[in-house]
Design goal:
Blueprint (H helix, E strand, L loop, with lengths): L13 E4 L5 E5 L7 E6 L7 H12 L2 E6 L15 H8 L4 H17 L5 E6 L1 H12 L4 E5 L15 H6 L5 E6 L7 H11 L7 E5 L17 H18 L9
Parallel strand pairs: 3-4, 3-5, 5-6, 6-7, 7-8
Antiparallel strand pairs: 1-2, 2-4
């Protein structure tokens, strides 16, 4: 399987509505799709880098949908770094609303013909991707530097460590070694828990990078080499766990 490409030459992103009117940014591949992927955005909202990733994943052959998790509050997109503003929107999220949004994206993907669906999340979305792998009907999940490993982020949403204890699906956790929001002791605890997990799950830590190193190449904290490696690992993970007997992989 080819690594996740840097840009799109074929697919495009469009906005549509899923079940219950949930706004989705979606992209479908040319030809027969192998499976689907839900993308969960960072605390900033559904930003341009998230929409770009939706298209890049479609270029890999996946039916892809990103739910707008802030749609109940005018669907804002916040400038990266304005955390106090973003936090106000973050704090309005609820377990019921998040479940509805993720399941709406999943239903839309399955309606396009995907038999298996994975979920990928970044930062805030990474926390939710791990929770989804523990509580929802997801076939595989990838977390990029999702925080709140030791304590819940919202009422009713499991902490990362508690989610790791009850994983239902294979999970790939990608973390930054210089990220104060994911202390090394908490990551080590997750690794210990995963040695007893019935799922094929693993944690990868890049020791020299900071939180948010992978999604937006225009930010100073972006780490090109680690991002390339993380996306290669993600591509292999998806190939392994979204394989469908009637749809060969390239």
């Amino acid at each position: 399987m080819q690594p996740i490409p840097n840009r799109s030459d074929h697919s495009r992103a469009i906005n549509t509505a899923g079940a219950n009117g949930v706004p989705l940014t979606v992209s479908v591949p040319a030809g027969v799709a192998r499976a689907g992927i839900i993308v969960l955005h960072e605390v900033w909202g559904l930003s341009a880098p998230v929409a770009d990733l939706v298209v890049r994943l479609a270029d890999c052959g996946y039916i892809t949908a990103a739910p707008h998790l802030y749609h109940r509050i005018k669907d804002p997109v916040v400038t990266d770094g304005k955390f106090a503003q973003a936090r106000r929107y973050h704090n309005t999220l609820t377990t019921a609303g998040l479940t509805c949004d993720i399941e709406s994206a999943q239903a839309w993907i399955r309606a396009q013909g995907a038999q298996k669906v994975a979920i990928i999340g970044f930062s805030m979305g990474g926390t939710l991707a791990l929770w989804a792998a523990a509580t929802l009907h997801i076939d595989a999940a990838v977390t990029f530097y999702g925080a709140n490993l030791a304590s819940p982020r919202w009422p009713g949403i499991l902490s990362g460590i508690d989610a790791a204890r009850v994983l239902k699906a294979p999970w790939l956790g990608i973390y930054a070694g210089k990220d104060a929001s994911t202390p090394a002791r908490d990551i080590q605890r997750m690794r210990e828990i995963l040695t007893h997990s019935i799922t094929q799950s693993v944690v990868v830590v890049y020791p020299k990078v900071r939180h948010g190193f992978a999604l937006d190449p225009d930010l100073p904290r972006h780490a090109a080499d680690e991002t390339a490696d993380a996306f290669q690992r993600t591509a292999l993970f998806l190939k392994t766990y979204l394989r469908q007997a009637n749809q060969p992989f390239p």
